[in-house]
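Form 12-C: Joint structure prediction
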Amino acid sequence: MKQASLVIIGDEILSGRTEDKNLAYLARWLVKLGISLSEVRVVLDDEDAIISAVNSLRKKYDYVFTTGGIGPTHDDITTECIAKVFGVEAKIDDGALEKMESYFEGKELTEPLLKMLRIPEGGELIYSPVTKAPGYKIDNVFVMAGIPKIMQGMLEGMYDYLESGDVVNSRSHEILVGESFFAEELANIQHQFSNVSVGSYPFSRDGVYGATIVLRSSNDSALDSCEKLVLNLINKF
Amino acid sequence: MKQASLVIIGDEILSGRTEDKNLAYLARWLVKLGISLSEVRVVLDDEDAIISAVNSLRKKYDYVFTTGGIGPTHDDITTECIAKVFGVEAKIDDGALEKMESYFEGKELTEPLLKMLRIPEGGELIYSPVTKAPGYKIDNVFVMAGIPKIMQGMLEGMYDYLESGDVVNSRSHEILVGESFFAEELANIQHQFSNVSVGSYPFSRDGVYGATIVLRSSNDSALDSCEKLVLNLINKF
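Section 2 - Result
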């Protein structure tokens, strides 16, 4: 199974001003392709932080996605950083320039607009239907915008570059009792199925403790058998 | 200014099943104390991943917070990992045991309940008002539950261990035009104020592009002067 990682770039996430929506979206999108999202890092708009996160993850995982920092303002520094990661220059891409010029019907493009058309050499452009400024893929790194709608559009353009795996299906069931009451039996169920991942995700709702038990596997018959045992367990309470 | 980091532990976040709420909460809580949240990592319920994230962040930052993985089920492995990080044993804490026994009025505690009372040697217990199972602090690492309400309660108990800094204030203003139209002028404003951080966070709302310009500084008079220039810029559009 291919493993992916994500670098979320932006001071606004780390100050709590903006709640990130891209992690959960990317995670669910990858699950459907049978690719596992294995690690996420959130870093400041800081050159060293971005370069170090991308470098460490691109060696460790099959794919690295990044979100944020490819806009026109001074705090958008992702592309410079990615260029440094690969030891190349970021240059205005001719195809991207043509597209933007035709959109602005020949008006002269300002420096901030041109900035968004700089792509690290060797990068392949990936457009979102909702913007004329592209994201790109370079080696195993996929660079996307931070605005969720734009990011989601770019992601569709990245589909062809990714190798899908066996799709992992899941079954979820709620149990309305604290985890400590069923933890031992659930551990026994996990021990019986090495090819099913059995997770327990506790919640409290209106003062009632409970948990969602989630089973995940690419083997449907194992999933069925495991689910039966979990339903028996739930029915005891 | 003290720098903090966060390790979010849990398969459910990386599968997209659960949307994390703790990052934004912690970020805003730290801002009020004048502590910067500088990096976040989200990792699987996997021993190597947890140990490596905590080890790398505790050397790099003043404080490391963790959320998740301290419950009673088999997939809760945070405490074992933290014990390994510090090369100590995790043992049932006498004070925590007493508290739990009195809550259950002398009934025998099951193994899953006891598991939650194991604390790495040297750890100091930190309770949340909403649970009898504690979080803890060991060295510069603060271990909290993943359920937001419990996490928030434990965080209050960690207040006394943290060194506050100068509080960073912020001013936010929306500008209803695409970033490329004001990026150069905004960069000029940033250049004039080395002690103010000027950020631009683009959005699209009902098809209209705009951005929130956020100014942050611990120097209020610099913030005032910088804000005036930003308001002038906004009024041009």
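Section 3 - Comments
The first strand of chain B starts at residue 3 and ends at 9. Chain B touches chain A through 67 residues (CB under 8 Å).
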